[in-house]
Queue: 4 jobs
Job 1
Amino acid sequence: MTATLIRHPAVAGRFYPRDPETLREEVRTYLSPTPAQKPVRALGCIVPHAGYVYSGHVAGAVFAGLEIPELCIVMCPNHTGMGRPLAIVSEGAWETPLGDVPLDTDFAAALKRQCPLLQEDSAAHRSEHAAEVELPFLQMRQPKLKFVPIALGSGEFEPLEQLGLALADVIARQTQSVLIVASSDMNHYESDTITRVKDHLAIEPILRLDAGALYDAVTLHHISMCGFGPAVAMLTAAKKLGATTADLVKYATSGDISGERDAVVGYAGIVVR
């Protein structure tokens, strides 16, 4: 019997608390301001991945209103530059302070068969924070969570579209519901005023479920949305799976927390159904 491959946290104690009880209480705080309502079933969502003090309230607003299934696909940008451009990990588990989250080996294997551009590569994920920071939220909402992590370092539209179409095909064959989580912050390190304008140029095509128009907006207007790749792939998959609506749940910038408006990062929480 082979030992389970465990990925240990890369940013616990920096982006979010390392102590389990402190983390649990902080996540609960971010999940609680949403008015009590029946959680909705969604095909996908976009959530930010900064330190919880800055963007936790936006991510929490999204996750609090969703029915979190037992299987989530978490796609994130590749900030480190390490590894393959489309990198998946298929086996083992990811450790967080709240416990281990097993990977769904069968789904990952099926997705690799459907999308040969995806390559097995743990190096792209080892130090990457953008998928990791979503897990405590998902764990708090779904104790039986399994997931598949995908890090995207490609900035080309075609491979992102191919991944989205393949995701839709594999999800359509599942007997259980699946949530696609696109982990992304919005525009980076420009003034609050400019960031809000640029971010809404990107948000508008997302709300129209138009992956191509999102890609064009990010490229044309030089919007430094780090996770536009995951967003493009998620929108492509959701549209093929029958999505009809997207809702902006919450928008903020880091300046709303820090008070510093000269150089901010934008955060959007969006649900696709």
Job 2
Amino acid sequence: MADQPKNFGFGEDETMLRDSAQKFFSDNCTADKIHGLVAQDHNVHRSNDCLWDKALWQQIVELGWTAVCVPEAAGGIGMPLVAAVALAEEIGKAAFPSPLLSTFNATFVLNACQSDAAVKALGEIAGGKATSIAFTNQQGSWEPADTDVSLTNGKISGTSYFVQDAKKADQFIVSAKQGGDIGLYLVAADASGVEIIPDSIIDLTRDQAHIEFKDVDAIELAPAGSGDKAIREAMPAILCIVSADMVGAGEWLLQTTVEYAKTRVQFDHPLGFFQAVKHPLVNVMLDIDGAKSLTYNAACAVDTDPENAEKFARMAKSQAGDMAVFSSSRAVQFHGGIGFTWECYVHLFFKRQMHNQVLYGDARYHRTKLADLLIGIAA
């Protein structure tokens, strides 16, 4: 096992990046602005629109955030994974609608492909091309061999499900079978034969879709037989990004609920005076701190201790998933009668947490995988 760098490798450059993100979101993405953007209509039968601010996305691109984990050789900045995790944490804290997290995940897959086409695609990401991954089947399995897409005569056909930020993405990395082997292919969102069908999901701050491919031309990123390896190599980093998003949302829920408990008065005392309120909030804080430590530890391991990266990433996703449920439920309950209303901003973060905690497996799933890794119990 390699020696872990001090503070998970989070140095001066990473601190500056995080601080700039905090200022950006403070200036542009307060909770009331996000609520006004994505939650204008409370009607359950409203149209399934993808609501986001493209001008803010362009500002992010100009700040260089899409290039953070792109290697310098491909035109990026080449920062460690903890830098992207710090950005993901701030994005979760703001519940910011953008394709940045999906683009990070695509970057990790491309880094694992190690082909000329992948290097070119990484350069496009560094230049601001939003990219998402599409390798989940209809049953929700993201195991490479379970894809419902196939490659025949150089064209891909089939359907990918649960594709994140599909309406925001410019291109997709698609896993496809060729015989019994898995390859990875780059497909433009506007390519002939691509149909993006939006899903109705609980999270108002994101969009999801299933994508139908009908004899679509694609660029090979990883040949059949090596795509599954690239996906598995990228998965620890992907789990870190999702976990960091949950940590950020949990921090917003805790801070907002604590502030409410300090100012809302009942029985001549602030709500925070009562042990039935203060003690569970302390438990939320402890759960967030645990999830955050595990997430940064896993992110550090991806760069410095890859043999343990999967184990640490599954630990982080498991803890973050449980924390997401607990922090959300306490926030709603301790806001009392207004906690479950549409006008209370808590529901934005509650729904984002519920989406994240099942994305790429809930806590129980990852504990099962951990048991298999550590003591050989089959999943």
Job 3
Amino acid sequence: MAKKKTVARFMAVFAAIMIFSSSNITAASEELIVAGTPIGVKFSTDGVVITGIRPINDAGDSPALDAGLKRGDVITEVDGKRVSDAAQLGEAIALFDGEQVEVGFIRAGKPMKTTVTPARDEDGRRILGLWIRDSASGIGTLTFIDPKDLTFAALGHGICDAESGALLPIKNGSVEEVTLTGITEGKAGNAGELHGFFSGSRRGTLTDNSLSGVRGKLDKIPTGLENEIYPVGTKNDVSEGKAYIFTTVDGGGRQMYEIEISKISPDSEQKNFTVRITDKELLKKTGGIVQGMSGSPIIQNGKLIGAVTHVLISDPTCGYGILIENMLGEQTARISSDIAA
């Protein structure tokens, strides 16, 4: 049996402008399987993400800072050679002693280059003066599955580095089964969260990370969802008033809960309407929207019209939702500063 491991929920803070390829899911899909079940995602980044600048001495000097590198940049090359992870970056930098080296990186979706002179740390290792990341994992909610090819979308928002806010580019990743173990209730000023662990069973592959969520392909349809097929609604089908979400927050499994939709902004790329939790049972369990509920599908008038994406820290009973047609299409990340559910 796989060892139980508690993992952190995504608290994505958007602070980058990056473009990622779309999945095979298209807006032409007329009917989709509506999920609302938890999933775990694990992935390696495509390049090395700079999460912070690290001073190498008391004066605050950093070769990376002198070279103009910033938090959120993604290092992809050193001396013209591809680097995919932290180990490769370290090996490449170790070849240069007191010499300038050309570093290729991605900033705001654009390839750029700079030169940097590695320094030595107290142990004699050559360093750039950076904090970096090359992998991530977390728990979210599966929004829908296309029954034709088992492609899926989840979260309704991108997975970002918690420190820098940079959207993390995916090199490869997997989707795994999750067991929920508890809830931290959301309160004004403090985001709640779902707790759980990866149970060790692989469920599919992860291929995309964009503003509108993560995408990939499942190995099979999860048990119990085979007949949960709903027509896809457009922005013209969304109206202020009562709606419902499917979500899973405890051992009771996937449940439908009542919500209220207001302040519709169909032309926005991500925050298309406001969601208020009105279901007394869900409010009692979670206090409202909590981290891990991102991606919970929204049903209105019998159609799948969107998904929950964010929670308002000042009022956890409220948050935002994204139109399903935006999750179906290719998205470009834009700047935001909210904590994602």
Job 4
Amino acid sequence: MKTYTILVADDYPDNVQIIANALRFTGVAHKIIRAPNGKVLIDLALKRIPDLIITDWEMPEMDGIEAIKHLKGNSNTKDIPIIMCTGIMVTSQSLKHALDSGAVDYIRKPIDSIELQARVHSMLKLSDSISIIKEQNKTLEDQKEKIRLQRDELKTANETKDKFFRIIAHDLRNPFNALLGISELIVEKIEDKDIDNALDLSKHLNQTANSAYELLENLLTWSLCQSNKIDFKPQENSLKEVFNYSVNFMLGAAQIKNINLSCKLENEIIVFADYNMLLTIIRNLVTNAIKFSNSGDSVTLDAFQDNQFVTVVVTDTGIGMNEATLQGIFSIVGETKSQGTANEPGTGLGLYLCKEFVEKHGGNIWVESTENVGSKFFFTLPTANHKE
């Protein structure tokens, strides 16, 4: 059984005792809190949040009317039912004044015990109803927020799915169509003994195949990521070794475009990261840098360390980006597709994966870029000393 808290305010202790004695026979479990004036009434009401308040009108320091107005203006106490109990409320005008201030009921002095018990019963029922309504409203608000979050997640999922299907239907098909067309031309050039043109087409064929492979690799990685099937196994890794491996792996793609790819890192830095995810991040960032660089440009890998994190920097001297392009560059939704300097296809999927994998490590990723100057992509990883 619930025990109700009733706050009684009156500057005469005998009046408070009369109310307390009358309420003993209500059959309702309750406890009485006493206040000698309006100021104490407010303090106690804010601290204890009672189920019901019974207050006198005339009290020292602050009267009942001012106290009621203050309580009704506070979000924590505005819904507490208040009974005005006074001997001066003898006219309809004074009753109206009490009700306008925020009281919901009244009782005149000298107090009739039966009348007091009846009004208290009624007000406690009102207090219960208000509590139920507030709890229901809170539940409804929680449900509305949950539905809103689910709606937003569904919208993002649908946008992601649509982007995925667009990539499969268009961006993945185009490289293979190009591969078929270029390979047929190479055969014709070889049959015509046009070796120079056949060699140029072979280079183009290789570049197109690399682009198709990169896209297919990212699609497979993305699909595993969406189904939570990618193992996350961070361990200590030599960043210099990872850089050197990545440079050797991407060197052919850079040489085809006559781009200088190098590692500037000289000191040994140990990071705590998943090896395969780290390779995917660097591969995508280096591929992106090569894609948007011209012949004679350079792409470099470097890193620096503080006490907690290592910051990796992939720098290129390529075409750079404007502010419009930078907006949403790490998001899979929206229109992020762009072509490289040699018309290489781009979907934005690689940068999206970079963001996913960097955040999986508890790091951040960002970019600084200036048109016709180049771009710098930064991302952070925990050091070996901060594995948590």
